[in-house]
Amino acid sequence: MPRDVLKRITELKEKISDADYKYYVTAEPDLDDQTYDMLMKELEKLEKENPQYASPDSPTRRVSGEPTKKFSVVIHSVPMLSLANSYNFDDLSDFDKRVQSLLNGQKYEYVCELKFDGLAVSLTYENGAFTRGATRGDGIKGDNVTNNLKTIKSIPLSINSDVYKNFEVRGEVFIKKDDFLSINSGQSNRGGKLFLNARNTAAGTMKLKDSRVVASRPLNIFVYSMRSAELFNEAKLNSHFENLTILKELKFPVNGFSRIAGTIDEVKNFCDEIEEIRDTLLYEIDGVVIKVNSLSQQESIGNSAKSPRWAIAYKFKAKEKTTRLNSITLQVGRTGIITPVAELEPVFLAGSTISRATLHNFDEIRRKDIRVGDFVKIEKGGDVIPKILEVLLDKRQNNSVPFPEPELCPVCGEKTDKPEGEANIYCPNYFCTAQIQGRIEHFVRRDAMDIEGLGTSIVEILLQKGFIKDFTDLYNLKNRREDLIILERFGTKSVENILSAIESSKDKPFEKVLFAIGIKHIGERTAKLIANHFGSIDKLSTAAADEIDDIYEIGPAIAESLFKFFRDEKGKKLIEKLRASGLKFEISKSGSVSENENFKGKIFVLTGTLGKYTRTEAGEIIEKLGGRVSASVSKKTDYILAGEEAGSKLDKARKLGVKIISETDFEKLL
Question: Do 120 and 160 belong together in one domain?
Fold first, then answer.
């Protein structure tokens, strides 16, 4: 009997996987919905009655039961590098000349593929089973989103092959155009916020903690590479195009628009052909990817620190349309910046309906002479952000007038401020109600207090219900536990997680707290410099503006902003409320600098791309050992640490006679 059960479970898994492949990949379904559902229910029943036969690669495991609290980090075995971009055929010709030179006269060919507008991911298979999926992240490390990727039914959970057992597949997760419109239609019917575009929606969905919600979204994937060290070393994988063919045979979803090109002219022809049919495709693309076909030649050509030298992306021209500017509204951001926004006659462009576009600042309005009632030409920069290119002056109304700069904040009525030399106009009132939600969202973000679970929608609910008035009230939510649990979108477990994250945030160091408060001009690095200099909030709050200005890299605008904040009674009360809640307002001894004579008091400028470290990591090492990192080269600079593709800073350093060191020299100093 057990053998019969195992045999039936195996049969059901194969039938369901085959049906998924035919439905989601080849679009040739051979089972009706009712038959499919009956097979799935039978499999679920048999696995429940015989849990010893329930395996991770079963179709019943595509949706995990419990939400993930936090994604674990995956280190990519081979970095997921980004591609260098080209925007015209001259760039492609230059790329071809570089390849020709690097291959020293060898014959070569290219593979041309579509450049999908989605989220890059990697899929790892061990002994034929899908065991791990990760986002690209920063290219070196990404988030473990295995359960979310399992919800995509075109991804095979197991591979039936005697040859290909341990390998990695890379691809792009995306949402089809029609599916994106359906998602936004549903959002509109529910009174929810509309998503900006299909790409961001796919990326955001993949980062949701609850794979049951992910499963409700129509995610798709195209895969475009296969990596297997053992097969490559045995010369069983010779070319990229062969990889694509093998992936198709293994029943992965591979896009049909790929072609071998013998010359760069053939590549250009392919780019023209695809741009012609771009709008007819069911999914968004923003260009063509060109790769050297031979895998051994790819290895010979190699990579730069940022991107492979054997591949390039040809980006299509941004799409344009003409529409009418109905009005200009003013938005106040968390730092008080007043941003003008163009309210447009809705127009469909590059996969979504555009009804708004940022105007950046009032200098931009004046420079382009943008007026209410004008007909304007708009484009999606990078096919994502809508912007106004120009005004069609020949269609301008005779009674149009220039748009005035605001003298008062449109929300709180405070007199606006435009600092000399800046394009932005500010509401100087730190406690303006329009700034509150943005400040709370800034306060809880990962690089500030890192309070997980408090996204935009949750913060909105807490403000609307009066549970909080600003971020200092977050530390009193523990007294409203029972009231929170009964709110919509909350529950016992989610409330406990939020309260736990709030409590854990009290361990964040002084520099993080200072950054999280969101004082004008105080970024993450600036907060660290100031915290290290003064050591405590008490010394900082009593410092004169010129004392703050004396800190290296801190200018008068930052000094004035801090000085004003700590002289404001509301600012003082805010600090005291946070202090009473137990936040850290002085540097702990464990966080003090461990000095190295090669670094103590020395000023470093970092430029170019390093091999072993990111610039942020190298900067942290320098500061930990008593040095300083500057953003610009001057006569005071002691060293310029130059990586690959160093730019103008290197030229300036040579002119000034500043000592230039390589990454190897840097490690010797360490």
Answer: yes
User: Do 537 and 492 have their domain in common?
Assistant: no
Q: How many residues does the chain have?
A: 670
Kindly give, in sequence order, each residue whose CB lies less than 8 Å from that of residue 186, ignoring residues fewer than 6 positions away. Answer: none
Q: Is 115 labeled as catalytic in the residue annotation?
A: yes
Q: Give the count of domains, the chain.
A: 6
**Is 31 inside a domain boundary?**
yes
CB atoms inside a 10 Å sphere around CB 406: 17
CATH code of the domain covering residue 56: 1.10.287.610
The secondary element (H helix, E strand) that includes residue 309 is: none
Same domain for 545 and 651: no
Q: Tens digits of per-residue pLDDT, 570-588?
A: 889 999 999 999 999 998 7
Amino acid sitting at position 290: I
**Structural domain includes residue 406:** no
Residue 537 lies in a domain: yes
CA distance linking residue 284 with residue 255, whole number of Å = 13
Which residue of the set 22, 48, 115, 520 is catalytic?
115
In the numeric block, which tokens belong to residue 419? Answer: 């600092």
Q: Same structural domain for residues 125 and 148? A: yes
What is the residue range of 293's domain? 85-315
What does pTM read for this prediction?
A: 0.61
**Distance (Å, rounded) from C-alpha 130 to C-alpha 164?**
12
**Cα–Cα distance between 321 and 586 in angstroms, integer?**
54
Q: Residue 260: which of 282, 249, 244, 281 has the closest Cα? A: 244
Q: Are 501 and 452 in contact (CB under 8 A)?
A: yes
Render pLDDT for 8-40 as a digit per residue (tens, 0 to 9).
888 888 888 888 877 767 767 777 778 887 888
- How far apart (Å, rounded) are the C-alpha atoms in residues 376 and 354? 13
